[in-house]
TrEMBL record:
Its main location: membrane. Keywords: Membrane, Transmembrane, Transmembrane helix. It is a multi-pass membrane protein. Pfam families: Sulfate_transp. This is SulP family inorganic anion transporter. It comes from Hymenobacter tibetensis. The chain crosses the membrane at residues 30-48, 55-74, 86-113, 125-147, 185-203, 212-234, 278-299, 320-338, 350-368, 411-439.
Amino acid sequence: MPEITQAPRKVASTAVATKVSYLGNLGKDIPAGLVVFLVALPLCLGISLASGAPLLSGIVTGIIGGVVVSWLSGSQLSVSGPAAGLTAIILTALQTLGSFEAVLAATVIAGLLQIVMGLVRAGIIGLYFPTSVIRGMLAAIGLILILKQIPHLLGVDTDYFEDMTFLQFDGKNTFSAVASALRSFGWGSALIGMLSLGVLLFWENVLSKRFALLRMIPAALVVVILSIVLSSVLDLALPVLRVRPEHLVQLPIVSSWGDFLNIFMAPDWSAFSRSTTYGVAFTIAVVASLESLLSVEAVDKLDPHKRATPTNRELMAQGAGNMISGLLGGLPMTAVIVRSSANINAGGQTKVSAFFHGLLLLISLLFLETILNKIPLSALAAVLLVVGYKLTKPALYQTQWRLGMQQFLPFIVTIIAVLLTDLLKGVTIGLVVGIFYILKTHYESAYFMRATPELQGTGVYHLKLSEHVSFLNKASIVRVLEQFPAGTHIIIDGSESQMIDYDVLEAIENFRQSAVDRGLKLELRGIKSVAVLGH
């Protein structure tokens, strides 16, 4: 008879609060905030386009996420803003509600719902996602970033942001877009993109390691300045290689106070009286909350200091951000892993970097449009390629493989599922695989069984139940009890069990009633209530 050991006991973990020095980390947070700004700016514009919303609504959301939510959140490194996972929901909401102003009303309600979720402590949901699934999500996002940015690096796509799903808005999918880019690309954009990628790698892996002073200068800033210069040189000296306007950042010009005020839109107050608005609001609240919880869980794993984000506070922070965003004409927001990982990889240490990126978005909207509109998108794509590689390094796959199939299979399934569907669907599929292994572990860890030493050879088996025996353990216990041959003496010992589920007790009672007919001798220890079951 096989020996099955008891499941290891849970070890309680305590989050240790660490003192954060905001002024002491400005030297790292300011450059990191600049990098996040360079990544966030085109994404904010692109998500607006992909959502069918006014172009500047994504910028409004990014500003609120940086300036407001960064301080309300308990996360030091998470960055909030418009999210890829909500684009399809916004598109559907526009069709359902009939106007963007009505969607703004739903966003305000969704924010209120998120605050309520935080107050009732629903943030604990994020703690139930296995580490293997979170790592798979990060690796998949890294691969998606690489695959999605290749066309932009080569100057093919006319829209900077294709949503993070496998099937794109232009009718292509992730792989067909890459194949198309490799067949026909813009030489000027490709030249700047490849040079930018080379400078990034050389700066981070060689120069910054040899010269301490250069570590203070973010490589992304160097690349952006260099790309503007190169684009201007090509425009003047080699017009045939000129970067086409659609492959440059396209930030709307705000030339007057009136233009600035027109950026902001008020919600349609009449939409609050329609039931459909609340259905859309509930969908936004649930999806935005899940994406935020997944993102902060992933950020905590990437954080070099391993700080823990209070999830209920995060829900309330996101809720407040969405209420403000809806009132001012912005898109719904979440904590976003792409910008957060860019923040971490750029050396961000505290929430000052996210706040500074929000300030830069506001300043760029008011004063820097002319300069920013000269940045080639291929240079920004190079920045995101490096971010993507850091999220999906080969060493990560090797580590997960060494941990065994129980860790590797949910990890790799999550990656494939996210690549072929979208973030939430992919994580859900990975979670199902992870739950399978959890159930399997429960199935196998219900008891410890051995032949009693002093009665070896006499057919006596001691089946000692675990500390907690749930209904998930019923199948394994029943399976073992059915295997004993006639003449066996069985001791079922629940003396050290704090909880034995009713279903298990009922199965033991059924076995007790049939034991005599099967020629078995049954002895029960610490299972006093069994005798009254089944009546």
